[in-house]
Amino acid sequence: MKRNRIIIGSASLVALAAVFAVSPWSFNGSGSYSKKDLPSLESKSADDAKRWLEARYIDQETGLPVTPEKLEWIRSQVRKSPVSKNISFMEQGPDNIGGRTRAIQINRTDINQVWAGGVSGGLFVTNNRGNQWYRVDSYINSGASPFISSMTQTPDGTLYVATGSNEEGWNGNGVWYSQDEGATWSSIPGTTSCTEVESSNADSYVWLATNSGLRKWKVGDAALTTLTPTAGPCTALKVSKDGLLIVGAFGSSNKTFVSTDGGSTWTDKSGASSSNLVPQGAPRIEYAISSSRVAGKYSIYAVRTNSNLQGMNVSHDDGATWNQFVGASGTPSNLDIYRNQGTYNSIVSVVPNNNERILIGGIDVWQWEQTVNNPPAGGFEKLTEWFLPPYSPKYAHADNHEMKWDAQNRLYIGNDGGIGITNDYGQTWYPANRGYNVTQFYGIAFDKDGAVMGGTQDNGTLYNDHTQSTFQEFREVNGGDGFECEISFYNPKVMFSSVYYNSISRSGDKGATWSSFVPFFPSGYDPAGTDGSSFHPFHTEFVLAEYYDLNSEDSVTFVATKDYAAGSTIMIPSMATGDSMSYTTPTALYFDDTLYYNDLLTTTDVSVVNQINGQTVLLGNYTWTPFATASGSNPPIIGDSLMVDFPSGADTVVVQSLGTYDHYYGENSATGRFILWGLIQLLTT
Fold first, then answer.
1. What does the longest C-alpha to C-alpha distance in the chain come to?
2. What is this structure's pTM?
3. Phi and psi (nearest 5°) for 302?
4. Superfamily for domain range 195-431
5. Do residues 303 and 362 lie in contact, with contact meaning Cβ atoms separated by under 8 Å?
6. pLDDT for 455-514, tens place per residue?
7. For 81-180, where are the alpha helices, taking DSSP H only?
8. Where are the CATH 2.130.10.10 domain residues in the chain?
């Protein structure tokens, strides 16, 4: 037996105030609403985000960007400040959504252990090939910067973590290393920011691409060794497995230099493509060297970008001669790899078993395979689509920055969504972010019941009311780059979220649906959401102000004491003012509705225990798909890996054990409708 309850909304005094870049402005409390689709397919400029971040690191005394030395001094003063023993923090997550990742490293002696680093979230490790990640607390506790740019491991087992990057808006505090798989850490003397670190199988040297040029070092060296072939920074670097072939970009114009003797001598390979050289002048260049030789020679690839593709070049003879196999291409075209973000997201990797096939990371992951020799030519194919649901085998998050292969040719990629994996050279993919909490939040909100919400970089607006499969699991309620957000104190179902350039949305059902909220702007303003508008900031900022009265509630719970037909008007007194609120029932309400159990309708479904987190998953309640490596049977068998579409998003389930459960149904005596009770404990008389 149950009683019908309805929630009736009352009018609360609510104002939404936005902060704009042009002038102070107060909102009069009214606005217009229009239906707008979920903006999950929107993608904005990474340069805007970088400028926003740089504006947060301004020295208030000089008005100039804060120097690394000043920033470290500020941090040291904060660490010296008294710590309150009465305040404790508890992490809220997300433990199922990652964030921007530029560094991955597989342990040379144990492919189950993989390290990954966020650009502002610190270092994490997995001991089961990405099924579960854990924060490496010893790294941060040693004083290392969370701004991780690159990683490598030398044959002696030393793990190197570089911090700071010329692709990001913040500096690092050196290159850090651990000789005991992350238990303890030290920094390489004389290092600050470093964009890339590399190593080979030949020795224990680590190679460093820095703003001062190319350096190398090994444990025990008193100082760095300089190997720069020309003046200026080293902005990109790759070293072959045998340590003999090295390719790098040097100077302000990113000129390509090649060494075939381990860095003792260098040859300038920059010039016109028509002269079998690599053009200089690209704002960004990325290299890849094959893992093996063919006919005694390595293959090297160079990908040159500005906001879009400038060209790609290949050498199949250790960098002696180069051929351009594709020229400039961008938006709009069929080869729109970078979508105006070529200086932000760019990576290239040679497929381990085919020196004439590469994977290219931009907005999505593409492949190019050579089909013609002399000169090399071939075709492109897009392998991933960032806007597909995460459980799709073609899904990988947008904005790719890193690619690393393990000894069994599993590829790990790092992007703005965290970690992605393919076991079949890019034909199918899946995200692997459980526990990898490096999500970057622009703004946060919370409600009176403890639920939290946040706007995140390239991962939308995320919400956690602690009802998902884990306490820290979030679900995406709005897309794009989420910025400031708010939840109503009176009615937690009411939320506001935002994306770029003052585009604000409102939801009245905890993020299930959204409507556009358009404030009244002064005449002459561009419409809200206008890309690049000088009237609207990239980072939308606003505040939700509500009239606060302990006796005020924006809703009341009504328990029917008699039957009401559909369309009946019910008058309910407000707890705040005593005024009556009217509510028209959309459907009939019944007093003391009775549900009769009907055992003929009971069905049996399969449950599994997830080996990853011990959670019991009722498979009959969700859509699920077995991985390619699974048995493919239904029901699954122990050991199968499944992608389960939970309400909070798709996630991996590894079958530890199987069971069964019953679905029960009841019949409403008033309406004759059958109602699913689900998994319950039946009472008998």
1. 92
2. 0.74
3. -125, 125
4. YVTN repeat-like/Quinoprotein amine dehydrogenase (2.130.10.10)
5. no
6. 999 999 999 999 999 999 999 999 888 999 999 887 889 999 999 899 999 999 999 999
7. 137-141
8. 195-431
